[in-house]
Amino acid sequence: MARFLPIFATQIIFLLFLLSSFTKIQVHGYAKTMNKNLMGLKKEKLTHFQIYWHDIQSGQNPTSISVVRPPTNTSTNGFGIINMIDNPLTAGPEMSSKMVGRAQGFYALASQEEVDLLMAMNFAFIEGKYNGSSITVLGRNQVFSKIREMPVIGGSGLFSLVFGESYGYAKTIDKKFFGLKEEKRSHFRVYWHDIYSGSNPTAMAIVQPQNNSSTMFGFLSMIDDPLTEGPELNSKLVGKAQGFYGSASQEENGLIVIMNFVFMEGKYNGSTLTILGRNKVFLPVREMPVIGGSGLFRFARGYVKARTIKFNQTNGDATVEYNIYVLHY
Ligand SMILES: *[C@@H]1O[C@H](CO)[C@@H](O)[C@H](O)[C@H]1NC(C)=O
Ligand SMILES: *[C@@H]1O[C@H](CO)[C@@H](O)[C@H](O)[C@H]1NC(C)=O
Ligand SMILES: *[C@@H]1O[C@H](CO)[C@@H](O)[C@H](O)[C@H]1NC(C)=O
Ligand SMILES: *[C@@H]1O[C@H](CO)[C@@H](O)[C@H](O)[C@H]1NC(C)=O
Ligand SMILES: *[C@@H]1O[C@H](CO)[C@@H](O)[C@H](O)[C@H]1NC(C)=O
Ligand SMILES: *[C@@H]1O[C@H](CO)[C@@H](O)[C@H](O)[C@H]1NC(C)=O
């Protein structure tokens, strides 16, 4: 089903190593404030890589396999599928060219209408001075768009404290590209509708908990939830929340949430924000980090505050107000 997915894509990665904002860390018992010098941080660097990513689903040695299949065929594009990948990264477009690393992680089909993936992967380098270092990418991949932009949200080794962005397909850009303008602060308020009932559900349970856990530990749901301007579902549609959430606590109602807010309106049309955090759903207000963005939200960081407006215990439908506070360029 997922065979038509991104096959050979060039990944161009722009990285900005950011050091300055990591100096204020609070101390509490097991944590300790460190100064920048102790962390051995040197100068911030700009790096640009061009590599080729091979998603191989066919043959005897596939590097990409479906690990979750949706329980029902509600959509034709495979909404709900999750593929685990260990894809080769090469220096040239041919599979036989020099192997520089592996892309390890997963992608999920998180749109009911298009082929939009939520991708979470580590680029683990195995070559030269970058051997052993990795870059973490998490974002939205609109597979059939010529160029897709996804945030680089972190790294290890030579890529410590990295943030930046990655592109699909080649594009020439000089250093001025990083001549970032002024950092902006934005606040958005949108309403998130998680709909399980009726004939047009926007959320689908894709993995059921194995045991009868009172917190449904192990449960996973894929969402393509409308984001509207007002609390009513029929108010103006401004975007979609695509991704999934799962119960990751055995004792409380605590979800891990990974989703892209894809804006579809006005000047933000096509731009995304990536949210990854913990959601204790029965608290009046929950806070989750914004860890990246694309388009007008490049280099985004910030947080959201989520407040449930409506929740139907019987069918699981929920409306949640999201206040988004974000710094971006
Ligand atoms: C979904 O569709 C595929 C291919 O059309 C079929 O093989 C599979 O059995 C279907 N699954 C369900 C649960 O209907
Ligand atoms: C990369 O590092 C691993 C482990 O340290 C080592 O075994 C391997 O030979 C290195 N590869 C290259 C190409 O340097
Ligand atoms: C889970 O609950 C169902 C019905 O409540 C019961 O039939 C089943 O044995 C339970 N399974 C476990 C592993 O406890
Ligand atoms: C389910 O519960 C049984 C009995 O308590 C336990 O042996 C098993 O490991 C559990 N499975 C999972 C996946 O949690
Ligand atoms: C948003 O962008 C898409 C693709 O570029 C376009 O088809 C759509 O009409 C735009 N929507 C609005 C409201 O501008
Ligand atoms: C909650 O869901 C149930 C089952 O779908 C429905 O009968 C009920 O009317 C809903 N309650 C509200 C307040 O919408």
From TrEMBL:
Keyword Signal: yes
A Gene Ontology BP annotation from the UniProt entry: phenylpropanoid biosynthetic process
Protein's UniProt keywords contain Signal: yes
Gene3D superfamilies linked to this entry: Allene oxide cyclase-like (2.40.480.10)
Signal peptide: 1-27
Protein keywords: Apoplast, Secreted, Signal
GO cellular component, one term: apoplast
Superkingdom of the organism of origin: Eukaryota
Compartment(s): Secreted, Extracellular space, Apoplast
Subunit structure: Homodimer.
PANTHER family assigned: NUCLEOPORIN-RELATED
Function: Dirigent proteins impart stereoselectivity on the phenoxy radical-coupling reaction, yielding optically active lignans from two molecules of coniferyl alcohol in the biosynthesis of lignans, flavonolignans, and alkaloids and thus plays a central role in plant secondary metabolism.
Record-stated family: Belongs to the plant dirigent protein family.
Protein name per UniProt: Dirigent protein
Gene source species: Citrus x changshan-huyou
